[in-house]
Design brief:
It is a single chain. The strands form 3 sheets. Strands 6-8-9-11-10 form a 5-stranded mixed β-sheet. The protein has a 4-stranded antiparallel β-sheet with strand order 2-1-4-3. The protein contains 10 helices and 11 strands. It is rod-shaped. This is histidine kinase.
């Protein structure tokens, strides 16, 4: 917005400067022209006085000599004509009194009219200045003395003056822009900049940020009040959310602890009970994360400070319960190679494995094979089934929200399972890859970064 405001104000300053500069430029040109005309008019008056006697007596030798000397000294041709416009004396030959400029000047001078001021000397024009004075005796016009004044040096002087004016104009525009326009622009936009900075603070989570509305235009005060009301509403909503999460997590701790105690007694007798016990533990971890989200736990308990998780060990522990589930449905679950590898502790291995194994049992065909391998800087959790698989076009859409293959749309499901897996992997910098294996079926790989310093 600052650029657009400057783009509006700077042309206005330029236009005003041009309006101020045009009269100054005209003054420079007309002043130089007037000065040259007046100085040469004095010389023409002197020649008119010197020509009075020769025009009466006819002795023009001395007058011709004066004209030649003046021409040599000032590089200005001079000639004298009588009342019939015959050239009596000249500093150079070839004078044509019928030239438009000469004829106009002689018509005015011989008629006894006052001389008119010559036009301004602009650098892009050319030509000589004609200065004529009447030769008069007792009120009777005897002839005229005419000077053809070169204007090159005068036009060069005007050009230099215009260049100086242009330079001063540019400096003035720059000074006005820097000294006035930019400060005014900053002053006008300061409330909006404050609002923009406050908005960025709110987006970073500083919901207690407010903007000042004192001493500002009514429109900006209303905008600031609206922003403060919005920020206050967000702050209150976040507080209510934290209070709800803190209360809910606190209330869930006791029944989860009681349920775990009861199931622990059964876990020694039944693998399914151990599977349920792992679910109770997972619920406990969810409650812990909710507590941390609500800010009720100490900062030192943040998940980012926990030890790396051995993905292979976590998968093997979760597969204990799933083997019982697959066996109950007469499905074959093969545990393949399990290579230890450290991954981020916040990776929800149980959630990911539950989705992949549930999809493989519903949409694929046995046997289903699970393995954990290392591939360079990644640890790969792989689940393969031997079903119909997916086409190349469908493989590109795996993990999109609410997407389901055309072969599986009649089966129950929401199309969110693999989207959740992809989101969980991305949360720790990982990714999900779907590919057709040799021999048919489908392989879903969850690839997450390997923690190098993990001690196997």
């Amino acid at each position: 917005m600052r650029r657009r405001l400057l783009q509006s104000l700077v042309p206005m300053v330029v236009v005003l400067a041009i309006f101020a500069a045009v009269p100054l430029a005209n003054y420079i040109a007309t002043s130089t022209s007037r000065t040259l005309f007046l100085s040469r008019s004095n010389d023409a008056d002197w020649f008119a006085t010197m020509a009075e006697s020769p025009l009466q007596s006819g002795d023009i030798a001395s007058l011709r000599e004066l004209a030649v000397r003046y021409h040599q000294l000032y590089s200005t041709p001079v000639f004298v004509v009588d009342v019939d416009r015959r050239v009596i004396a000249t500093s150079r030959s070839g004078v044509d009194v019928k030239e438009p400029d000469l004829e106009k000047a002689l018509n005015s001078t011989l008629a006894g009219r006052l001389p008119t001021e010559p036009p301004a000397l602009w650098p892009w024009r050319s030509g000589e200045m004609v200065v004529a004075r009447p030769v008069v005796n007792n009120g009777r016009v005897l002839g005229a003395a005419v000077l053809r004044v070169p204007t090159e040096s005068a036009r060069e002087k005007v050009q230099n003056g215009l260049l100086l004016l242009l330079g001063g104009l540019l400096i003035s525009i720059g000074a006005v822009v820097v000294g006035i326009v930019r400060p005014v622009t900053r002053w006008v936009l300061r409330p909006l900049n404050d609002l923009d900075n406050a908005t960025h603070q709110v987006t970073r989570g500083a919901l207690d940020t407010r903007v000042s509305t004192d001493g500002r235009a009514p429109e900006l005060r209303r905008l600031g009040d609206s922003f403060n009301s919005m920020a206050l509403s967000l702050h209150q909503a976040r507080q209510r959310e934290r209070e709800f999460v803190a209360d809910a997590s606190h209330q869930l701790r006791t029944p989860l602890t009681s349920a775990r105690i009861h199931i622990e007694g059964l876990s020694r007798l039944s693998p399914t009970a151990r599977f349920a016990l792992s679910d109770i533990d997972r619920l406990g971890r969810i409650v812990q994360r909710l507590s941390r989200l609500a800010g009720s736990d100490r900062p030192g308990d943040a998940e980012g400070n926990e030890e790396p998780l051995d993905l292979a060990q976590a998968v093997k522990e979760r597969l204990v319960g799933w083997k019982a589930v697959y066996a109950a449905d007469d499905l074959e679950l093969i545990i393949g190679e399990m290579v230890p590898g450290g991954v981020a502790s916040e990776l929800e291995v149980d959630d990911i494995l539950d989705v992949l194994l549930d999809n493989a049992s519903k949409y694929g065909a046995p046997p289903v094979e699970v393995s954990v391998l290392r591939d360079g800087t990644e640890v790969v959790l792989s689940v393969r089934d031997h079903g119909l698989g997916l086409g190349s076009r469908d493989l590109k859409k795996v993990g999109e929200r609410f997407w389901r293959s055309a072969h599986h749309r009649e089966m129950p499901g929401t199309g969110l399972g693999l989207a959740i897996v992809r989101s969980e992997a991305a949360r720790v910098g990982g990714r999900v890859v779907a590919r057709p294996p040799i021999g048919g079926g489908l392989v879903i790989e969850v690839r997450v970064p390997l923690i190098d310093d993990y001690d196997v």
